[in-house]
Design goal:
mainly alpha, hpI Integrase, Chain A, 17 helices, 3 strands, 70% helix, 2% strand
Length: 449
């Protein structure tokens, strides 16, 4: 943490030094650009202010002519200059005092530097005690479920860290691209414009516009014509569109944890709104890790939704291992089964066929998912099968730090060697705890999307 803060501090100092050097170089070169600036200002005045002044002068002349015609006055004998009574003073002369300029510069930047130093100091102390601060916050806000609160805070911290790193990388790349493009256009102080573009891009909405305006003004002062200024503005516009529309959506989505799984959870109901049972099947396989045939062949007599600890007992004849398997049902899984109950009506099957007298053919569910893959792809979800979801669950349990033997039992995989023979413990509570943690993780993913 402290290394990152030190690196950030050194980077800020380096950027400030480079900006100061470039600004001093521009100040030294201003006399060379004075004629260009005066010419551009004169042109702008002729184009914008000139017509307005001409119209105003003509209006004033017509008004005076009208007043003179109504009440003629003899003003020919009045001495020149008597009416004004205003003395014309020579323009003031300014002397340059380098120590005074340096003092003014220091007094200008002192307050921002002071504020930045205080923020940096607080940040260092916060990073030194960040675990203690996290624990204190959890004790205040997450007393009802400390485990979930801890997971949520750790997950949010990881996502924000990746987001800020990605944002820094994007803005650094944007500034680098601006610098290289302006160098190709042969704009002096292109490095200053690139640094300013990268830094100002942290300012939302107006940051890039301010940097582009500065580059355009600099180009107007340097170039006798107008092409360099418009080319510079074009560089900013094109690069900003590319970064906003192509780079950021893809990069920030992955940086903040918007995985294909999160996108699947967020959009499954919308994609399968005309095939509701397909969407429910996707959610139930993710929540229970059962096989496709075990789900489509389920009877309502196997599922106890009213128990204090709901469970789904799959008989041995319907499991791949040939052993009866108990699936603990988490609250989200119970909600999905209740949805299926309303859709099934009085059928004894959880997934009834069209006749309601038999279970749905598992292949029909696979075909239904396949028909929606193109729509899922529009939401950044790659092609998948229902069996792929079991692999997703197993990988997710490993990432949550679940013991491998418990994770294997949640998927009803046969245990190796003599373990299956001698270990007859049902592991129901361990599986319930694991699937509850997994369901909470899925909820966090969906909320984060």
């Amino acid at each position: 943490m402290l290394v990152a803060v030190a690196a950030l501090t050194l980077s800020c100092v380096g950027i400030a030094a480079a900006l100061g050097t470039q600004i001093l170089h521009i100040a030294e070169s201003l006399p060379q650009y004075e004629s260009n600036v005066q010419r551009k200002l004169k042109t702008l005045e002729e184009v914008t202010v000139g017509p307005i002044l001409t119209l105003s002068n003509e209006t004033s002349r017509l008004t005076r002519s009208h007043q003179a015609a109504e009440s003629p006055r003899d003003v020919e004998n009045s001495p020149p200059g008597a009416a004004s009574g205003v003395a014309v003073l020579p323009p003031p002369e300014f002397e340059s005092h380098p120590p005074l300029l340096v003092w003014k510069l220091l007094t200008t930047v002192w307050h921002p530097l002071q504020f930045a130093g205080i923020v940096l100091l607080v940040l260092i102390f916060a990073l030194l005690e960040y675990e203690s601060l996290r624990d204190r916050f959890i004790l205040i806000a997450g007393t009802t479920d400390i485990r979930t609160a801890t997971l949520a805070l750790n997950d949010a911290g990881d996502r924000l860290s990746r987001y800020f790193v990605s944002q820094f990388a994007v803005n650094f790349g944007f500034g680098l691209a601006v610098w290289m493009s302006l160098c190709m256009l042969r704009l002096p102080q292109a490095l200053l414009c690139g640094i300013l573009a990268g830094v100002m891009r942290f300012v939302p909405y107006v940051g890039v516009a301010i940097a582009a305006l500065f580059a355009a003004v600099l180009a107007l002062a340097v170039d006798p014509g107008w092409s360099l200024a418009f080319s510079g503005l074009g560089v900013f516009i094109v690069l900003d569109i590319v970064v906003r529309q192509l780079v950021e959506p893809h990069l920030y989505g992955h940086a903040t944890g918007l995985s294909p799984l999160a996108s699947l959870l967020a959009n499954v109901d919308e994609v399968t709104k005309r095939a509701k049972r397909s969407g429910i099947a996707i959610r139930l396989i993710l929540l229970t890790a059962v096989r496709r045939s075990e789900l489509t062949g389920a009877r309502w007599s196997e599922v106890d939704l009213e128990a204090k600890a709901p469970v789904w007992d799959i008989p041995a004849k319907r499991t791949k291992t040939g052993v009866a398997f108990a699936v603990p049902l988490t609250p989200p899984a119970v909600d999905q089964f209740r949805r299926l109950k309303r859709l099934a009506g009085r059928s004894p099957w959880v997934f009834p066929a069209e006749t309601a007298d038999e279970a749905m053919d598992p292949r029909l569910l696979t075909r239904s998912i396949a028909r929606h893959l193109e729509t899922f792809a529009e939401h950044k979800v790659g092609a998948f099968t229902l069996h792929d979801l079991r692999r997703t669950v197993r990988t997710g349990l490993a990432r949550l730090g679940i013991r491998p033997d418990i994770a294997e039992r949640c998927l009803n995989h046969a245990q190796p060697g003599i373990i299956e023979t001698y270990d007859t413990h049902h592991y129901l509570e361990e599986k319930r705890d694991t699937l509850t943690r997994w369901a909470n993780h899925l909820q966090l993913l969906r909320n984060g999307s």
